[in-house]
Amino acid sequence: MKVRLTSLLLTIISLTAQGQQAPSPEERAKRLFDLSDRNRDDKLTREELPERLRPNFDRVDANKDGFISRAEHLAVMSRQTPSRPSPENARRPLLEGIEAKLDLPYADTENPRQRLDLYLPKLRKTDKPLPVVVFIHGGGWRNGDKATGANNVGRYVTSGEYAGVSIGYRLTGEARWPAQIHDCKAAIRWIKAHAQEYNLNPEKIGVWGSSAGGHLVSMLGTSGDVKELEGTLGKHLDQNSKVACVANYYGPENFLTMIRQPSQIDRTKGAEYPEALLLGGAVPEREETAREASPVTHVSAGDAPFFTAHGTEDPLVPFAQGEEVHEALKKAGVPSILQQMTHGGHGFRSELLDQRLKQFFDKYLRGIESEIDSSPITVETRQKK
């Protein structure tokens, strides 16, 4: 099975390298089904699935007939494997001056979600180990792709002063909490374990994420000393998952308070909203899990410095979430900046914000001391779904 899956991946890579269009997500899903269907009866038994996926069998077997049909397989794969930007569009800004090492497995599994992309400058401005900016994508923990992080870290890598990484992680269509933070921590440990190989500074790793990604980077920043959330993925358990600084863009910080705050999402009924899908049930019914999954729960002295950017008119994750983590960090004595984006919704653009974020990373990853202005920035909202 491993040989056949590797052959499929090599074929996809070869087609892309030759300028041909790589298989679509639907085509990849069909091929994966065919590879797993060993007896060619057009249905999958529990035994035909890779061992790591067998716990999901009953969920995928929608009609409970003891088999996974091709339709059931494709239905689940379409929810958890969104379309990936074409290689031309996803990588275009990075073609000049960047060496990209894509889809590196960090958890010692064959799961395509447990991969990271590493970006290195072709022309470094120093021979010393480079600090690393790590991006974690959003998407409500149920959508998104690490390919979208390429442009975000690219601006740092092209400077020759940083290396960049974009992390993929398991989505809620495949796994519930704490799988997502286990994946992210395993990726950080992988980076540290391979720091010497790529001439990176393992003590200068900054993490940056938006929305669900903002939540996960906030968890990395506050739970570096929480053994229970470390997980056991990968070969590098001798490494820790602590990070040097956190850039949190409009991430949820306290699930227990967020359900009581105004939002376009009705979190008082049912269990189909993003946080409920993450936690395995409605927040009031999963209170202990919700508390464990909330970054504010783990705030303590010695946590990584934070830069939180949040829109005052965010209709999905209320601005109060950014205020709450900022106040908790200040109370614990942790350096924290709350960048208010006046009129900003769930997503925004601002060159001034980009400049302040660069200043933040330079300060905590490159040791360039400066006073970072945190006065409000007025923006036009740009809704992210």
From TrEMBL:
The lineage of its organism: Bacteria, Pseudomonadati, Verrucomicrobiota, Verrucomicrobiia, Verrucomicrobiales. The keyword Hydrolase applies. It holds the Pfam family BD-FAE. Residues 24-59 form the EF-hand domain. Signal peptide: none annotated. One of its GO terms (molecular function) is hydrolase activity. InterPro entries: AB_hydrolase_fold, BD-FAE-like_dom, EF-hand-dom_pair, EF_Hand_1_Ca_BS, EF_hand_dom, GDXG_lipolytic_enzyme. PANTHER family: AB HYDROLASE SUPERFAMILY PROTEIN C4A8.06C, ALPHA_BETA HYDROLASE. Keywords: Hydrolase. This is Acetyl esterase/lipase. It comes from the Bacteria. It comes from Prosthecobacter debontii.
